[in-house]
Amino acid sequence: MSNIVSNKQEFNPAARRKARHYGMQALYQWQMTKYAVKDIELQFLADYDFSQVDVEYFHDIVHHVPANLEELEAAFTPYLDRAMGDLDPIELSLLRLGSYELIKRIDIPYKVVINEAVSLAKKFGATDGHKYINGVLDKLAAQVRTIEIKAQQHYQPQ
């Protein structure tokens, strides 16, 4: 009996949130160990209960963030106030994940991307790391989600 949810499930925000949670941890492990993403993914699927996780999205994160690493890092680097090597490993994993979602997953509203990254930073990161994540991703969103941001501002009641 498998503990993996079928990929044919309806969109479930809680399952997507859990996919991000495990995805960030898998990216952190990949960053620290340099093991193959395929092996890390298999380890997570074997070691954790994925019955309430959007497995397809977890797979997407674990494979596509490393595959697009150069582009993602180039996108957020201008908004850093320190060298990338000086970033906390959790913050770096979250910036990569958040940048991926902002740039490659336009189906996810930018506010959701930022809120989820901030939430994970509060849970796993340093004391004020969530503020840093928020600032960097907010600036990146202003660059890559300009139309979405302007549309939202236009329709907000004054």
Automatic annotation (TrEMBL):
Chain ranges of the NusB/RsmB/TIM44 domain: 17-141
Q: Mind listing the UniProt keywords for this protein, alphabetically?
A: RNA-binding, Transcription, Transcription antitermination, Transcription regulation
Q: Which InterPro entries match?
A: NusB-like_sf, NusB_fam, NusB_RsmB_TIM44
Does the keyword Hydrolase belong to this entry? no
> According to its record, what are the GO cellular component terms?
cytosol
GO terms for biological process? Answer: DNA-templated transcription termination; transcription antitermination
Is Transcription regulation a UniProt keyword of this protein? yes
Pfam families, per database record: NusB
* Highest taxon, organism lineage: Bacteria
Which family, according to the similarity comment?
Belongs to the NusB family.
Instruction: Describe the task this protein carries out.
Output: Involved in transcription antitermination. Required for transcription of ribosomal RNA (rRNA) genes. Binds specifically to the boxA antiterminator sequence of the ribosomal RNA (rrn) operons.
Q: Please report the name of this protein according to its UniProt entry.
A: Transcription antitermination protein NusB
Quote the gene name from the UniProt entry: nusB
